[in-house]
Amino acid sequence: MLLSMLQDSTEVLADAISEEKTLSIYKLIMDGGIGGQIIIALLVVLLTVALYIYFERFFTIRAASKTDSNFMNQIRDNVSHGKLDAAKMLCTQTNSPASRLVEKGISRIGKPLEDINTAIENAGRLEIYKLEKNVPVLATIAGAAPMIGFLGTVIGMIVAIHEIANAGGQIDIKMLSDGLYTAMTTTVAGLIVGIISYIQYNHLVVRTNKVVYEMEAKSVEFLDLLNEPI
Q: Any keyword Nuclease (predicted)?
């Protein structure tokens, strides 16, 4: 009799362990109810947008950060010998934000230095705008995703409380499962999307700042070149 009871207990425990192992993310989402599914779908869309923006901007900024260390020496030689067309051609072939600023400055040679500096600054603002294109969207997603997840938490708790109110004093944990699944899964999903987007945003900001610094350095070097005595 005791052996039979032990066998039954073992089978029940094994079934419970087996059921726990088969619990998947998909099942959690499906058991979360329509409210949780809508919020999870929205978070998936936000994550997809965030990943697309990150990789598109990452490769663009990485390409913009590649500059020839001998670029300014060649510009100096061409400008010093009056070969402005050759200097412009070199800027066009280099095709980087810094080279476009230098090209803008070369096209203004002959005008007052203040006008050249203003033209370079205006071109620099345009280049920075191009580099930062869609990057603020990542910051928005990083802030909005956790709040959307918390919205799912509130919805899930409302569902759970509603089930308790309608239980008539007989509360069954299975009745609360939809609300609890919604509350937990949406919170986790929102935090995951928010954390990923936040890291991506800060990484792009750091990379962009490096390119901006390179642009400023090349601009100052070019202006110093124009100030050199002939």
A: no
